[in-house]
What we know:
It is a single chain. 75% of the residues lie in helices and 0% in strands. By secondary structure, the chain is mostly helical. It has one domain (10-290). Helix 6 packs antiparallel against helix 13 and helix 7 (106-118) packs parallel to helix 9. It is globular.
Amino acid sequence: xxxxxxxxxxxxxxxxxxxxxxxxxxxxxxxxxxxxxxxxxxxxxxxxxxxxxxxxxxxxxxxxxxxxxxxxxxxxxxxxxxxxxxxxxxxxxxxxxxxxxxxxxxxxxxxxxxxxxxxxxxxxxxxxxxxxxxxxxxxxxxxxxxxxxxxxxxxxxxxxxxxxxxxxxxxxxxxxxxxxxxxxxxxxxxxxxxxxxxxxxxxxxxxxxxxxxxxxxxxxxxxxxxxxxxxxxxxxxxxxxxxxxxxxxxxxxxxxxxxxxxxxxxxxxxxxxxxxxxxxxxxxxxxxxxxxx
Length: 293
């Protein structure tokens, strides 16, 4: 049976919502002039503030969480915090298309991790579909790749962020077998925000000296890509394989590039549009083959 049919809700609809939401992340970061670590910290901690009034409903569940789950949640939070720190900083050195295209390596890292940790195998058709989607995503950012100077630094930062989010995704899959999406998300965001707060204190970054525009951007990042993006993906980990969710995130380069064209004035070519179609075909093929039982 297809894993998407195990729930009474249209999982595909939530996948689309999540992809659109995370596609706005790079746009908001580009609009901000605050330090990357500060943007990421407030993005996460503001999400915690929004979730806090509902936390009491999960008091019993929280009291039942074992030490192993807490340690995994802390590690997952560190992975998410490092992802935001590295990837968001990459946007100061390279283009949206280039940075998000590198994120397409995430499902490869997740697939390898899922095999090593959970002995989860992937079919030949799924591997071919993954290759098609990744080729399409890389083509979207191909014209923006540069192998020297600040652009290279940005690409390397994006790669480090990709490894970190793969670790976060793999840990999240195991935790979500025993912990609800709300509890897992709340504490993952809290630990990730806490790590970034420590980093900001150590680096001497200001916590308060920002204009109203910046606080508005922090809030938008908390609402759109975090609540409607990362929280939705955390919820879906209960019903889908981590590799499949990582594959759907490949839609971000296409969505982000289209938004960057409309909102930031970045160029988009016919090659990128054709590559986007190739990407979507590959993702659809992968989800159909990889989620079949």
